[in-house]
Amino acid sequence: MSTVDTTTAQQQNTPEASTRGDLIIDAVDVHKEYHLAGHRVSVLNGASLQVYDGERLAIIGRSGAGKSTLLHLLGLLDRPDKGDVTLDGVPASRMSGAMRTSRRARDIGFVFQSYHLLPEMDIVENVVLPAYAVPGSLTAARERARDLLDRVGLGDRLRHRPMELSGGEQQRVALARALMNRPRILLADEPTGNLDVDTGSQVLEHLFGMSETSAHALVLVTHDERIARSCDRVLRLDEGRIVDVVDAD
């Protein structure tokens, strides 16, 4: 994999106009820094990327390169210090707090390295949680939750609580929860980072399989180039910028 000029690389690694879906997310020149113990830490320094409807996009880079920070900005969980993230043509900078919350609930699903399941609830209750943020029948939501859990191979564990499941099973619950509201975009941050190779492969099989059947866009953050090559496009993040683009074979 060779490093190429960023502008040329982005042109080469952008889906062809005749085959790509609609542009969903457009992040332009985003910067983000944090102040820790009196020191300023620059994390993103002008990162730009686009996400298209229905595609699978991987973002790779070393630990600390800013991958998770970028994913948080794409998912409207945080705001850039400079630059902007546009969702369906609407700049995040022009969204009110309530609008950002609504767009996250309806359009974006999240899968994190740590599963973030509530231990006092059974797995159906965990999966249903996002449904409380959108209008609709909770009876229908519980039915959908059971269906999603069945699709990820946990249909016989519905009454179990998270601590009664293995790590791989908990991540599959988290995937089902992320898909609860039929999001257009699924953001996955190192979803196999806490799992062994075999268990991680099972989770990825469900992740890619569900993405294909649901036809949403998938943005996968990983440090594992082998995993990244399962996606349609691969972007590399280094020193807070997209510095080269790798064809996914």
Layout of helices and strands, plus pairs?
Blueprint: H1 6-12, E1 23-36, E2 39-52, E3 56-60, H2 67-74, E4 82-87, E5 90-91, H3 97-107, E6 108-111, H4 123-128, H5 138-151, H6 167-178, E7 185-189, H7 197-214, E8 217-222, H8 225-228, E9 233-238, E10 241-247
Parallel strand pairs: 3-8, 3-9, 6-7, 7-8
Antiparallel strand pairs: 1-2, 1-4, 4-5, 9-10
Helix pairs in contact: 6-7
What does this entry look like structurally?
- It contains eight helices and ten strands.
- It has a six-stranded mixed beta sheet.
- It is of the alpha/beta class.
- The N terminus is likely disordered.
- 41% of the residues are buried.
- It has a domain of 168 residues: P-loop containing nucleotide triphosphate hydrolases (Rossmann fold, 3-Layer(aba) Sandwich).
- The termini are close together.
- The chain is globular and about 45 Å long.
- Helices cover 32% and strands 28% of the residues.
